[in-house]
Every structure is written in structure tokens, then in C-alpha cells.
Specification:
alpha/beta, Rossmann fold, six-stranded parallel sheet, two-stranded antiparallel ribbon, 8 strands, about 25% strand, FMN binding, Flavoprotein domain-containing protein
Length: about 190
């Protein structure tokens, strides 16, 4: 049995800024739980970037109680000058949760066609990546090739092996690209 990680509010980090990028996988529907847990346990400013595909799984308005700002458009500046530069200028942690096979391709190949991918190109530190897909996709040679490239670029993968909902059938299956529980995510990202 896994030991549960327990944190008190504000215990881990103070005065930090966290940026979370979200793209289109079924795991995006769990984002409010992750955001609420981060806000509860860590004293931080928390911003979220949604891709167009992420918005097919989660409404940007549903995230506002759990984070400071939600961004979803490279060309709608929301008071920012060059948001793809200013959003990453002073962040302490950058997480991509969940991350699809398609978005792994974008990261590995330097594609900058939306706000999130442009922010990744402008960030010069390690990014924590949480892939979320079925095992068939995860084990494809092309996906693993992209994972290898991204790791060589210095980014960190924090996926777990666990049961995950198979969106096509509504059943659960084991995958090596499952999302960790929120407390486990906090332990692995903010204690590093």
C-alpha cells in the first residue's frame, strides 16, 4: 500500500510562481483537483495556459476559482506584452499536465503555433511533463523517440504506471502514461 503524502498549507514553497500548461487529453477534466491541491498546499501564484484542444475537455471559466489567471490565446494579450515571453520570465516551476502524444511532438520538434508551445520555446529551464495517454500510444516508437529528444533537452517526465480510464470504452486499463495523484505530484515537483 502506498503511503499518502501529507502537506500543510504553505509548507513547501513561499513566494513562487507556477505556470501550468494544459493540452487536449481526457486527463484535463481532473485539472481543478490538481489546481486546488497546489493552491491549498503551496503558497504560490498559479497561472494556467489552455490550448484549443484542452478547451474541448475543460471550460476556462471553471478554473478561475483555483488559479490566479487563465490564458488561452497567443494573440489576446490580457494586459501582457508578448505573453509568450512575459508569462515565463519569472516563473519558478513550469508543468505540462496533462500532455498528449501530439503535444510531445510539438515540444520535441520546436513547434511554436500556440501560446503554450511558444512559452515552452521561451523557457530556458527544465519543464515537468506529465504524459497522459493509453499504452498503445505511449509505446509507439515515434512517441518514445519524441520522449527521448525531450529528455535530452533537459526536461523531466513524471508519469506513473497505474490504472487509467480508457476514454473509448469507459473501462480502466494499466498504462505507463498515467497522471500521479495530486499529493504525489506536489511531492515530486516541489521537493525537487
Amino acid at each position: 500500500m502506498k503511503k499518502k503524502v501529507q502537506f500543510k498549507k504553505g509548507e513547501i514553497m513561499n513566494n513562487t510562481t507556477v505556470l501550468i500548461g494544459v493540452n487536449g487529453t481526457i486527463g484535463a477534466i481532473n485539472l481543478p483537483v490538481y489546481l486546488a491541491c497546489i493552491k491549498e498546499k503551496i503558497n504560490c501564484s498559479l497561472d494556467v495556459i489552455l490550448t484549443e484542444n484542452a478547451k474541448k475537455f475543460i471550460n476556462p471559466l471553471s478554473l478561475s476559482p483555483y488559479c490566479d489567471n487563465v490564458y488561452d490565446d497567443l494573440f489576446r494579450f490580457q494586459g501582457l506584452v508578448a505573453p509568450h515571453v512575459s508569462l515565463v520570465a519569472n516563473i519558478s516551476k513550469f508543468l505540462i499536465i496533462p500532455c498528449s502524444a501530439n503535444f510531445l511532438y510539438k515540444i520535441a520538434n520546436g513547434v511554436g503555433d500556440d501560446l503554450l508551445s511558444c512559452c515552452i520555446l521561451n523557457y530556458d529551464k527544465s519543464i515537468f511533463i506529465f504524459p497522459n495517454m493509453n499504452d498503445t500510444m505511449w509505446n509507439k516508437k515515434s512517441v518514445q523517440r519524441n520522449v527521448d529528444i525531450i529528455k535530452k533537452d533537459g526536461h523531466v517526465f513524471l508519469n506513473v504506471s497505474d490504472l487509467a480510464l480508457k476514454s473509448a470504452s469507459g473501462t480502466f486499463e494499466k498504462t505507463d502514461a498515467a497522471l500521479p495523484q495530486p499529493d504525489e505530484l506536489i511531492k515530486r515537483v516541489f521537493n525537487s
